[in-house]
Each structure stands twice: as C-alpha cells, then as structure tokens.
Amino acid sequence: MFKKAKSQFLPSLKKESNLKAMKELLTAKGEAAPQLPQAGELIDGRIIELSKHSLILDLGASGTGIVYGAELKENKELLKGLKINDIVSVLVLDPENEDGYVELSLKEANQEKAWQKLKEQKQSQEIIKAKIIGANRGGLVVDIRGLDGFLPVSQLSDQKYPQIAGGDKNKILSHLNKFINQEIKVKIISLNQNSQQIIVSEKATE
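-> structure tokens emitted (206 positions)
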C-alpha cells in the first residue's frame, strides 16, 4: 500500500474538510448526511486535476479524493490516456485523511478489479490467455491481468512437458526457459486473494 508524500503542490483541506462541513450543515438542518466511503471500497470518481504530483477526483457527495504522487511516480502507466473529466475506478485507502481528502489508489483498484474478474473466470471455468514471464524448476510464472500466477510442471500440456531423462533439474529449467514471453491458454484451478496465489493449468484446456 502506498504512503502519501507531502507536497507543496497539494492544497490542504486539513482545517475543515468540505465533507465534514457538509455533514455538520446537513445534520443541523435535520437532513441525512452523505456517507463516507469505506476503506477497501471500490468507487468511481471524475478527474478534476491531473499532474505528476497528484490525481484529484470529484467523488460527488463523498467529497474530494486524491491519488498521491508516490503511487503515480512508481506506476507511470496508470496515467496513460487519462484526461480531465474522465471517470476512473479507485480503491479507498483512507475515508478522510489528515489533509481532508479521501485517499485513493488507482493501482489497487485495478488489482481488485482483476481479482474479481479472475474469480468469475474460475467459477465459469473459462479458458483465458496468460503470458509466460518467468520459469523455475517447479513450473512457469505467468502474467494474467497484471497479476502473477503459477503454472506447475504437472499442469503443462503434453507438448510443453519436459521429457528429461533422469529428471535433471537444470535441464528441466533450461527447457522451461524456452517458453518465456510466449502467450498461452490456461484455466484457473486455484485462487486465493488473501495469499495472492493464482494457480493455472494448460493441461485443463486440452
């Protein structure tokens, strides 16, 4: 999870946040106050300010949200194609931080959406595409929707299975390395978001 970096470029709502002031006003009038989004919740926001220092979002009745520059700097691809007034999905890190903003994450929102999609695909036993990005003696590391998964040797197709006499581990690894950067079709056979574990099978697609 990203830590926010203080910046002279960011306006502070610390003294009295817009959302807090709105709540107090509505409460005084006997009207229902807007609910703060919950930490871990996926919400949509409209981009009202975009720079390398921060991404500011209009969250409607929930106030103003921010994605801090530290996350944007480390994940520059998150900003590609984005422009003012675009609607984006974000994950709530802090409903109201010390600066008075709803603190948000684009990266974690993308990951959460990816996990939700993978759960649907596992449930339906859908055949999906994965890119091989690494290898070890136990199998292949694959990328699926930006998340790392693992394809055990035992779940390789007959064509890829290492037919190595004597089971020499170094030769098995050399064989598996040949497949790096290839795109393959797999099914998800095990999924655990808490432990960040994704196990896939190529054999199951045959």
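The radius of gyration is 23 Å.
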